[in-house]
Write a structure and sequence with these properties.
10 helices; alpha/beta; Rossmann fold; 2 domains; 12% strand
Length: 222
């Protein structure tokens, strides 16, 4: 099977480029497309047409309609699926999923699509595997990591920064988004090679992993 993975930023792409082969193994193909932020779902569900904007949710209606038409021409023995991976942030999960599914309903034909939401942020998937964090950052603060509640709304990236970045989030955050983004990308590159995808305590990561496996296994006989 072929997977088109849509993510909201560079750090997400760096993480998934490493994690996806661990989950689905060989015999499948995938491309991770990074965007320049999550944005918001257009009220008219049409989406902006300027591809240079590269804001994920702003463009999602147009993207899914395009994938629907393209994937309809894929051979039956090698189908394709779209996986949206983004942060929940402070949104309500059920409401957000309803909005995403409304976009999918506007597509004709509909692409095979799954929505995988990191709760609260993508760093929750790293915090679901504390041994991997400690392998990547041996000096990580155990007390901060052990007090984290998986998939809690708590300022997830700040919690990880407090555990592994010198001076914590109070030192990193004032440096601005480009610096924060660069550090998040470094976490992705350093932590994900150590992650055990079969033993992650983040339920949102487990849902993502299981979603990929089910799609891959569904078409493993083709």
């Amino acid at each position: 099977m072929h997977f088109e993975i849509l993510v909201e930023d560079q750090s997400g792409k760096k993480a998934l480029d490493i994690l996806i082969p661990k989950i689905i193994g060989d015999g499948h193909t995938f491309i991770v497309h990074e965007y320049k932020g999550i944005g918001r779902i257009p009220t008219n569900l049409r989406g902006i047409t300027d591809p240079s904007k590269r804001i994920l949710l702003d463009r999602l209606p147009k993207l899914l309609r395009g994938y629907g038409k393209t994937h309809a021409n894929y051979p039956s023995d090698y189908p394709a699926a779209v996986i949206l991976v983004c942060d929940l942030d402070n949104k309500n999960l059920n409401t957000f999923l309803e909005e995403l599914n409304r976009i999918l309903e506007t597509c004709s034909p509909k692409p095979e699509t799954r929505f995988c939401i990191a709760i609260e942020e993508g760093e929750a998937w790293f915090l679901g595997d504390i041994p991997a964090i400690k392998k990547a950052y041996p000096g990580a603060k155990t007390a901060i990591l052990s007090n984290y509640v998986n998939d809690s709304i708590c300022g997830t990236w700040e919690r990880l920064a407090d555990a592994i970045f010198p001076g914590g989030s109070q030192k990193l955050s004032p440096q601005g988004y480009p610096r924060v983004g660069a550090e998040k990308s470094a976490w992705s590159v350093n932590i994900t090679p150590h992650m055990d995808v079969e033993n992650n305590k983040s339920q949102s990561f487990c849902f993502f992993s299981q979603t990929l496996k089910e799609l891959a296994e569904m078409n493993s006989d083709n």
